[in-house]
Predict the 3D structure of the following.
Amino acid sequence: MLSFQCFLFNAFSPMLSLSNACSAGSPTKAEAVEILLAKAIPKKYLSELIVWAVSFAADKNHKIQRLVAELLVEMRRSKSNPVMKSNDMVLGFEMAMKRLPDFLKDAPSADMVLKLVAKHCHEAGCWTKDETDEMSEELVDLMGLASQKGEVAGDAAVAPAKAASLTDAEKASLCTKLLNSAKGAELIQQYENNKEDYARLHEVDIYAAVLQKSAPLDAECVWATADQYGPLLEHLLSEKGLDIHMPVIAETARVLNELGFPKDASKKFSHLSEALFCGLYNNDILPEEAFIFWSEDNETEHEGKMKLMIQTTKWLNWLKTPDDDEESEEDDSDDEE
């Protein structure tokens, strides 16, 4: 009988082939599922397949991560003979959620990847609503499904209030009240002290209000600094997932599009777009992984995306290139081993 590790490797060999970008002879998703079926993987290992899928995808690019998610859906939804049942899949994602701290040590964007894969499977109908209701709060929150599960504990309890519809005028009034109340670290305290009111605002609404209040925008990005609105934006955005980070970047593109994607008058950057990305990154408002994920996401379109992508290509390439110091440390580590 094959060992546990051998089963995993054999099971995922189709995935490894699929991830070899468009190579000749690579199987389709349906063919990959047939290969998996032929391997007759024992039921006790099926949930582990999910854990291994997330681990495999954690340090890969967005295209491969999407392929992993699509293959898992095919494994569950195959009309001829599904590889796994819904309860096997749900258990696998719960196991992956518990292993997330370990994944994050090697891949800082593992939480984003887990969310992407789990949410893709959820939206594809890989399990029932009743099974969603039985999921752990941690997994439900990660997928952004708290409002679908009913009442949840902690900060999520404010979700119904936040979801309440506000008119544009009400949003503008509430944002103005918040941003005029204080600056710097004190603004965080103001937000927390009045969270029942301010939590009704979406994080992106607050970010948009900061940009509007800080007009005309320039390369200095003073609005993002520690004595202005940077601490509040970091507090609200930095630890969130793709469901918040991607709309923030989309809002940045929308604002730049309205301005005509101007060049940087100070000549410090080629374009204002690079300055805004630097402001968000250097002030720890958005993590590196958010920009990389956005740049590799070919599925989602939004206003001004292509123009923003073109103007920030050089900066994104810099972001994706390891520092010489990091490479040296990795080499030293390899030598020690």
About this structure: The chain has two domains: 4-152, 165-320. Residues 165-320 form a domain with the Serine Threonine Protein Phosphatase 5, Tetratricopeptide repeat fold (CATH 1.25.40.180). The mean pLDDT is 80.
